[in-house]
Specification:
4 copies of one chain form a homotetramer.
Chain A: H1 13-22, H2 34-47, E1 52-56, H3 59-70, E2 75-80, H4 84-87, H5 92-97, E3 101-105, H6 114-125, E4 133-140, H7 151-163, E5 167-172, H8 175-182, H9 186-189, E6 197-201, E7 211-215, H10 224-230, H11 239-249, H12 253-274, E8 287-288, E9 291-293, H13 294-302, E10 308-309, E11 325-331, H14 338-349
Parallel strand pairs in A: 2-3, 2-4, 4-5, 5-6
Antiparallel strand pairs in A: 1-7, 6-7, 8-11, 9-11, 10-11
């Protein structure tokens, strides 16, 4: 019963076949190969416009490079206080932007609200601003709380940002889960809603290691080459990352994988709620955050379930776990099986 | 006829099988998996002592992280003026060390000499030193000129460094080719000769993307975690890099691959020399640098050969190409075939 | 009627005489001169223990260098959200520490409370911490709201910090005003209360440009030399900064100047309060923050008063200015005259 | 007999009077004061065109900020291998540019030659360039060897740079001495010869601490504000630096001071040459580099002369000191007296 993280899964068989096929013969290195060219076309088709992109091996690299292309070193990046770039990347954005500072903003269910962004902007741009100007807004889609921004929510936040002169970045480490959840076109939740740059995650979706920074305005990618090189992020056999993405995009495989992961999470959430456990944030993607009695959590672990406890920051007072309770995170993936889910629920309900 | 670079090859079949096998089931992410643990043991066995290591997807990342662990930001790194860290990484070492400066040193055949290192050290450490102190010496093995340092050469340079308080780094993007060429034990040319940290390249050797930083004193690796994270170099599904290295190390596969590449280069060099062409640097690993008439180079390209021209820096006046000549670089790999080599030589000799 | 800032004043006549006297003859540069040596003794006497110090021309440099000596690049600095290092130095701390991130904390009257620091520490160090560890706590004394930490407040916060392994920095741009206000010994509010490093401001106190970083543990200053040099903060004719501090410290001149400034602020605050205006934060040093009707503020400006409006962040809802009101900041200095103060109050009360 | 450095002198009486006068009354901080405005006009008059400028307290800050305005982080700065930015500033340029690398170039008498710059450019910009592009050329005027570039030399080097797309920086820590030596107009040796940005030194010329970065194209200064702030180089009481420069520029005081210093150096050089000592570099500004018998150097020191030995890098083989000789540096300043010079020469000639 593996619910620790979607990066504990391996890789989809179709991805593995694509790697093996892609490794045949010789090809130019550093992205000047045919698979990379094909991927450019596939991305442009997927997003219904010409895009530029760079491939990386990690999501942190994708976020940091993407934001470095958007935000000059003397500006700040607004992001949710639970965002991965704030909590888990130990200064990567500051490092790659050469100094742009992160301004964390609180918000319910892992989401930024218009009101909170407006307040933050007012402070940074009003007549009383003291030296720091905002440069970019970063949204996480799906969020770190397993929720998903609606198209109109992204559009409203991006409009606010644009009005104030900010570029908009989307951390899409779990973009596939968000799109599968919304059932929208990828273009609708990105550039049509005002997003300039997307970190598109392939790894959690089912690749071995494949992340992409997608620039909806190709001109934004200019000047990124030296940052990638200096950062050690120019993979020589780039075709082997490109092949993974091509396999994911072929015949909608990426959305099939994400839909499966999402449905496993929905089943978990529904099962737990039916048993009366609180699940403070709706399980809209592939993560479920129930509040469990500590005894139940212990029983699960004793029976081999693997999952993490989670910080309660962002819970309203009414939702905060009692002394004998704990907030936990359950993450599903393309590799999660219905049997595992049922076994987990069975252990919870047993007594 | 692919002689552009050893990173134009794909991956060895054994490596591809290992990736597929490694992707089965779930495993802890970020290097806390069984394959990573097994690799730790394999590296320690290979180097005949306990080592620490981190895995990366690029050689630039390995070099920059390794040197960041060795050299504080207020020191300088001595390296050959043709070293990859000097010519091809656009400031990665300075970026990851937070400011340690590179001091390029000239030297024949891509190698540093004791005399030149001594002169550089004298200037930086003598009574007239003006603020900069040396922190590390970086050697490239095999060198960017296709030559290989002898064990006693490394030992002498490392002794010089150690005496002056410097740590010693080895850029081993083509370490396998060097070891295959020397026929020595990996330990002999590294820690036993005074090397503290090795960038061990798997990608050019036959992996898809697999590089490692090997710390012969595990304590040196302390404090590297945040640098990797901040740099975006913590690969989540680390087991899939570890699997590649395990496949390379199994049954000496890495040396078999390197020996093949080296023998293809030797055949090229011997063939060209027999036809009377100058090859200023001995082809000791998997690179050959002949001086060809421009007409011959053009004929080769017209017939489909792929290779690069090369800067003549480091050639003695007697060796410098004439107006109608050009210095070119031919790189072989595990995937180079004898037939390709013979066809190349045949085109050269035809008229 | 100059209340814009204490850095709009010139320099005390005693300081100017000291500069002129200090400029006579030749002396070693870069701090190896007699005045700098004498200053070391004067600082040690002032703080009742041996201290190390470096001199700078700006307070931002003093803060950034001091924190760089305390906080490694992979840690964060806790500070009040209104602190100068957070609001006004555009990333200087991150720049000089090579990446340590600032974590702003709210708190009433410009002060950090034990409870808020405890909460911040819990989040960063508990079992749910995600990669960032705290490295230093920075306190501003006097605060940006014109208030002053009591000795026991500093001691309690510093004890909290020390327990969690943090070093403690004090931004003392207006340290003289705080000491004059408290009537305590400088040692009591610094190292005896747990402060490791003090940015000691001379400029606002009455110097031309003279700031010092005081290390209560001289070992902490080791390794700062290259940071100063790389940052362009090694003043060649250092004796001319040292002379300014010597003049300030002679016969308690610094405290005389600060006491005068403080008394001018007290008179302003008392006068305004007597007329019924709200002054939300007690004027404990040389700054007063009254809420004035916009009409009054306009009348003052029309009559030549110079002062700034101020952000209301940190005011409780009850204190927030009404539509027709504005929060303003009045800063006094050694050069403020009682006549100016009375004239200002007279204009306020006129109608 | 003080010949250690021109920064061992104090400040000219006229500068000291200007500081005292400038400190009267209140004035806006951070450069929005009348003296700073007047200085803008004075600089524009001096250079015969509208210029922008920023003031700093150190020459390292001026160099680093000026180059940061000219050279993006992915480019390199070409400079003489003996330049202050290469040998004495421990990475300040790299720090403030966020990574632009220095490429040191050798050249006789402390000067770059067209041929050597051409060779360096060819390597960085030719078809074989490997990732690094040149961004700026930095010239030191007067040089670190006490020589002075002729107008036509600067023009030729700047033309080379401009053709290759580089901006041109001049480190003028001793600019006054160079102008006094050449007898040219300041405009002739700067923008009319192709210089974009000048670090104009006041400190060694006779100020207490006053350096300026002069932008001959004011647009170049855009975006420098945050760099200054982040670097801790925004002096609050800027009028007190401006006053120093105003005093220097009034009635040609700066050139009077420089001419005096130069004439003291000429006298030293002529005296030593007349006694048969080698002076390998012509003493064209305020520095003399004679080769003295060690016995003579020791006798001078025993009699109270203060001066430094100097690295011999850059001397031709014929010039290199013998075993019993030493190359020394003698620096004169506005405060050097003819009596000191004669006494020095007297001790040399005594036996």
């Amino acid at each position: 019963m593996q619910f620790a993280s979607d990066n504990w899964a391996g890789a989809s068989p179709r991805v593995l076949s694509a790697i093996a096929a892609g490794a045949a013969g010789f090809a130019p290195s550093y992205g000047r190969d045919d698979a990379s060219a094909a991927l450019g076309e596939a991305f442009s088709a997927l997003f219904e416009r010409e895009v530029a992109f760079v491939l990386t091996a990690t999501g942190t690299a994708a976020n940091a490079l993407g934001l470095a292309a958007l935000c000059p070193p003397d500006r700040v990046v607004l992001a949710h206080e639970e965002a991965h770039i704030v909590c888990d990347e130990v200064g990567a954005v500051e490092f790659f932007t050469h100094g742009a500072r992160l301004v964390p903003i609180a918000g319910p269910q892992g989401k930024l609200t218009e009101q909170d962004v407006r307040t933050a902007l007012a402070r940074l741009t009003g007549p009383l601003s003291r030296g720091e100007a905002p440069g970019a807004l970063s949204l996480t889609q799906a969020t770190e709380c397993g929720t998903v921004y609606r198209v109109e929510e992204v559009a409203a936040l991006a409009a606010l940002a644009r009005e104030a002169g900010l570029a908009v970045h989307m951390d899409g480490a779990r973009f596939a889960n968000a799109v599968a959840s919304l059932g929208c076109r990828p273009a609708d939740i990105t550039w049509r809603a005002g997003v300039d740059v997307l970190s598109l995650g392939g790894t959690k979706n089912g690749a071995m290691m494949a992340e992409a920074v997608i620039f909806f305005d190709p001109a934004r990618a200019a000047g990124l080459d030296w940052r990638r090189k200096r950062g050690g992020h120019v993979v020589s056999k780039a075709r082997l990352i490109a092949s993974q993405f091509l396999a994911l995009l072929e015949e909608g495989h990426w959305l099939d994988l994400a839909r499966h992961a999402n449905s496993m999470a929905s089943r978990l959430a529904a099962g737990l709620a039916a048993m009366g456990f609180r699940v403070p944030w709706p399980a809209e993607a592939n993560e479920v955050f129930p509040i469990l009695p500590r005894a139940v959590a212990a029983r699960l672990k004793a029976n081999g379930a693997i999952f993490h406890s989670w910080p309660i920051a962002g819970l309203s007072e009414a939702e905060v776990p009692a002394e004998d309770e704990v907030l936990v995170r359950l993450v599903t993936s393309f590799a999660t099986t219905p049997a595992e889910v049922e076994r987990f629920l069975g252990i919870v309900s047993s007594e």
